[in-house]
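# nightly structure sweep
# worker-07 picked up a monomer target from the shared queue
# config: single-sequence mode, recycle default, output format = structure tokens
# input follows
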Amino acid sequence: MDQTLIRLGHSPDPDDAFMFYGLAKELIPSGRWRFEHVLQDIQTLNQRAMCGELEITAISIHAYPYVAERYALTSCGSSMGDQYGPMVVCREDRNGDFGHGALPDLSGKKVAIPGNLTTAFLAMQLALGKAGQNYKTEVVMFDQIPAYVREGKADAGLLIHEGQLTYQQSGLHKLVDLGQWWHEKTSLPLPLGGNCIRKDLGHEAMQEITDILKRSIQFSLDNRPKAVEYALQFGRDLDRDLADRFVGMYVNHWTLDYGQRGREAITRLLKEGARAGLSPDPGEIEYVTARN
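# output follows
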């Protein structure tokens, strides 16, 4: 059978690797589609989505309003932080420099962030409000942020991915967990990332491909030990137990289908971002829901 090439962009991280284990190793049927895995950091994928380069790509929910005319969100493949998520950290010995309130005061501070369009940065801006108006930011590759803060190149850092589990090993102190903050504010999970698919593929193709993505995720959940072993090669400073824990945080029932509550979380986050002038209003969001 002749197959049509589909480029699938995702981060080189344990959770995404776990999710697409079945596809990457050709352990599940892909029908008339042949998938090429494009592994890049989320900041780069966000930028590529602006140009519509990839047929399917992981994207920060924060970035979605900028590409909503070109892409629809798939109901599967999301990363939802359910009472946990990205965190702002500082060096352990600098803990007293950020005030003593429930949220850190970053006024006058320099913060290393993983990207201006990451959902972590949107959540940080929403959480800090006026207290954070005077901080400076510097975009640093996400896996370099712990060392950047430890070495004093930034006063604080915004951690995503496995840094949320390993920050203490780097001598860092948690100032705020943004997923926890969001849940206390809304009782909803924090929708960090999702998969989006290009609308010009047509409805039939979008549906078929979304169904395959969900089957890949289910295959990994059904074959967890082997999928974790595969994902481990993408983990920085993670042993098997930590890799399994990290995967469990971000590949779970939310990832198979985030349903109505997940959609509510996405809408709420993007509406609040638009009201605060931090991102465009996406209007009515188009979703493709997997059938299996």
